[in-house]
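My main concern about presentation is that the manuscript never shows what a single data entry looks like. Each protein is reduced to its one-letter sequence and a matching series of backbone shape codes. For the editor and my fellow referees, an illustration may be useful. For illustration, here is how one protein appears when written out as sequence plus structure tokens:
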Amino acid sequence: MIKFACIKAIATYLPEKIELNENLGDKRFIEKLGITKRHVAADDESAGDLAFNAAENLFANYNINRNDIDFILLCTQHSDYQVPTTACHLQHRLNIPQSAGALDYNLGCSGYVYGLALAKGLIESGLAKNLLLLTSSVYLKYINVNDKPIRPLFGDGATATLISAEGAEPCIDAFIFGTDGSRFDNLYIPVGGSRNLPRNNPEIIETDEQGNQRSNYEVHMDGSAITYFTLRTVPKIVNEVLEKAQLQREDIDYYIFHQANKFVMNHVQKKCNLEGFNFYNDIDDIGNTVSGTLPFGIMKVLSDTPPSKLQRVMLAGFGVGLSWSGCIVNLSNFIN
């Protein structure tokens, strides 16, 4: 008999250092973002370190036996090393049995839903029973401190999710995915990969007409293009997920989408005809944590809504890639 994959627990970790947005950029611009502060990884703190702390919080907060973990998935765009995969090193650091599988996958804002899909496949095919899904972002290491349109958006942080074979019926379902690689350079880092090796490309600092700076080793983002993509794509995600699940808007208990910024999410809510519905829009104290915004959002919602009232939650991720994804999760099996 198939046991279905269910989200059982989520824990988070934020670095100690805090950066205030009131010290960056135009005040009106900062107010539109709806982000007052963000956490910044220390110089010696890697994506793997953040993920490690999130996982340790998960084990401690929910009294989870790490010996029961039989697969590790890490979603990050900032692996600790070019080789090996950071998930392998985390298996050792977290003292998870060597019988566990482990891999990294490189995705940004759509990554958590992709991770849920991978977890569902591994668990419901019988290849895993208790899977540790980690997200970790240290984007601020790759954003110039003088890049005022981009710096105030992003925050560093990590999450850990336990997904187990437990449900008597599907708990994670109605997946949709999409990709438009023709616009990969709407959000990318030009140098550092195998196409443009560091040794062949000296660092070059660019300064735009507004005095914002970024180097070829740092994030380049076309904010207008990403906003246009978001407002055009998210309504399609909502409609396609609802159609696949054979549900109506009013059947959904909560809508939790990737948190770009407050201004964009306000427009997303209107474009998706979700005004008046339970719609999450709050990254005031953490900023855009990329693949972590969905689990961070789930935990915020769970802080004042019992799992029993979250049996149909729509998740949607969209951004760097360009990539998008959506699904519906039942959180009623969440550990209280």
Observations:
- The chain has a mean pLDDT of 95.
- The longest helix spans residues 223-245.
